[in-house]
Design the sequence.
């Protein structure tokens, strides 16, 4: 129970962190996106951080975003950095993410 509460807190902080970067520190996003490699594996794990996105369609594999072309900026910038990878691993560490970050 305690671990679940800690994980929920970390996921909530991750959402707030990404919102902050999007609104107030675009330089952080740009810097880290230059370090980001790979492509989305469409596992849908990032769409389940803290709560499941209502636009995630898991009826097929890989998952499908029903509003991909008009999705919110928080979705477009994910993952911002390695902390986002930690967050998605809290939700599903078995799903392989297509993104990595160079040092």
Sequence:
């Amino acid at each position: 129970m305690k671990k679940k509460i800690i994980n929920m807190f970390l996921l909530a902080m991750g959402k707030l962190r990404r919102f902050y970067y999007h609104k107030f520190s675009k330089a952080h996003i740009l810097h880290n996106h230059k370090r980001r490699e790979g492509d989305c594996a469409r596992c849908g794990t990032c769409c389940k951080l803290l709560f499941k996105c209502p636009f995630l369609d898991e009826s097929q594999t890989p998952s499908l975003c029903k509003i991909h072309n008009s999705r919110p900026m928080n979705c477009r910038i994910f993952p911002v950095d390695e902390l986002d990878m930690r967050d998605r691993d809290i939700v599903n560490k078995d799903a392989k993410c297509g993104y990595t970050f160079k040092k």
Observations:
- The mean pLDDT is 94.
- Residues 2-101 form one domain.
